[in-house]
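Two records follow; treat each independently.
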Amino acid sequence: MTAREMFIKLGYKYSFDTFKLGGTSNFISYKKKRGYEHIVFNLDKKRIQTCAPLTVDELKAVYQQCKELDWINE
């Protein structure tokens, strides 16, 4: 199962965003409908930001996304 499928199963919606201010940064975002729950992957800086503690299933999806981005070498 892909990370996107895992996040969708957990109730998150996928989006890809580009932010330009003194350079360009690309982001993958997963957000819940309530709006305040989100997990953001900064593709340029290899950083992950979340607004709340993660469940084990969310953590598994984050780990899978990192593997798919080649941020983790096994």
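The next record belongs to a different protein.
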Amino acid sequence: MKVQDLHQFKKQALQWAAKFDACCCLDSNDYADPYGRFDFLLAVGIDQSISEPAGAAFEALKSFYDTRPEWMFGLLGYDLKNETENLNSHHPDNLGFPDLFFFIPRYLLQIKGTTVEVLIGDEQEILQQIGQSTPGPEDMAIPPLKVCSRIPKASYIETVKQLQTHILRGDIYEVNFCQEFFAEHADIDPLAVYSQLNSLSPTPFSGFFKLHDKYILSASPERFICKRGNRLISQPIKGTAKRSADPEEDAEIRKNLQQDAKEQAENVMIVDLVRNDLTKNALKGSVKVEELFGIYGFKQVYQMISTISAELATGIHIVDALKNTFPMGSMTGAPKLRAMQLIETYESTRRGAYSGSFGYISPDGDFDFNVIIRSMLYNATSRYLSFQVGGAITYAADAEKEYDECLLKAAAMLKTLGQ
């Protein structure tokens, strides 16, 4: 079916989907993507599902997929690291997302261009129900929230300096250090908040994920990993610069980011880490850096993005291809294991779903997963809303500038919440 007003159709479709116990929307926001298969995917309702804590979660997912290799959508929480490595998580968890959750949807529709196609379910019934949905107004007021920072600026700066002593000692080269912003007693309409966030900060890996009373409202610009045929592609982000409304200044900002030696050093460390992760899945000699230090423009920022690919080795299960690269290097550091140990030591909040991933696996064995950053997490029962932001800490990092970069990454979420 051809749709004249795609924006309105998406709003109505999400309004319909959000009434179900689970749904997953993946929206590219019309960004050109040579590796993308869809402009918009919407999975709705649970036919079958799996929810597992870290321990044997990937093996359980493998069995689940092998039993029914169909369309499935799901969440990989950061704390699955405790399964891939000998690690633990002791910080408070105020959100309660499962470590791993996947579901086979009752209904599934896709949009490519201006064409809507129902992949699972009765097309006439679904489109009729969507047509009867009445989304709220574009400028629907969001009640003011008291958003607090989990750690004061002075503590953030002191922690960065402590992490730099580990770098000086040779423990690590780089670590992704994150801080939490949160609101308690938050009564929000998750769909309205997501709609305004997506309007303010449209990104190629944005998404709305609902699991009962828990929500991920994501404006992610980053792909974790995708599989296309026998090829794996990962696109880590390291390097951020705020855009300007002035065209000449904006062009200068882009040029400066592209030539920034510090940002390049951060980026290449993660590229090397991702190359190493991909070798666990790859045909010998097939790991390639397709693009190094690519600069991509989004509505509010420029990002430095590199692209690494590999050919999947014979006999590697697609779930193992995910497990062997998880969690993503852009959100950990290098060396990966020691960086994750230090993250647990120096951060003050359990990451949970944050810096994990959500996405899909298709019946033909392809998959695509984002990185859960620039994302609000919300538990409607406890009325707790949280988002975390962070950045790469290297020996050359300036703690004040790193703090400012955190605020830049948080800007769209703070603005959405009226801050």
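Discussion point: Residues 160 and 243 are 26 Å apart (CA to CA). How would you locate this feature using only the token line?
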